[in-house]
Amino acid sequence: NDSQQENIQEKNIEKASTTAAAMTTITNDNDQDKQQDEQKEELANRKQVQPSHGTQMNRYPEQYSFLKELVAQNQTQDDKKILSFGCATGEETLTLAQQYFEEPSIKVFGVDVADVAVAEATKKAQLVPEGKITILDGREVSPKDYGPFDAVLGNSVFCIYGKRDVPYKNITYVMETFPFSNFESMLDDIDSYLKVGGVLTVFNSNYNFMDTHLAERYEPIPDKKCPNHFVPRIDRENKKFVDVKDQMMDCLFRKVKSKMELVPIANSM
Hints:
seven-stranded mixed beta sheet, 6 helices, 11 strands, 35% helix
């Protein structure tokens, strides 16, 4: 009798363990499904900050030349990836692919969230060999899925400027529509798919990159300053625009530490 009871108990324990494991699997699957749904919703709700798609070929030649030099300094044998964040209608991605990073081992990516921009950029990508340029719709996929990147260009995208039907000269409107916290949030996203040692460009932005919390993990590239910042900077303390178009300003920043390198190690004692 004792033996039979022990067998019954063992079977009950085994059954309970199997049930618990099945429930854990279901819970994990549900959590993964929820995370995927949340990510899809976040991507679908992404909107462009800069309302204008105005751009042109070889728009920032000094910066592109600096970037070409910096990427060439990386002697790793791995293929390299360059991302144009807010690529608009594709002139920047085409410029990079045709004039600065012609090597087959360097791939150029562009991401935007506007229908017309994605469509036009995709057409221009067909002007170079297949696979050289990849255009992403930021409402459907994250660049993170295609990284990590050796360089990310954020040129004239972290701003509200230049479109006539948008009150971009109204400081209150700009600060409320594109607050500094949104600027930092966008940079946090980019940081997640930029390699340590990689280069980030921030040009024509309403705010100063070195004022963000990411600044402690980045450093401006010495002697690589860019002219013609025609978008005014915002003096947040005094709530006014500052004209910087005649200044040579830092526009390339190297990522020197990962986010994890700044996390304090817990005391094991």
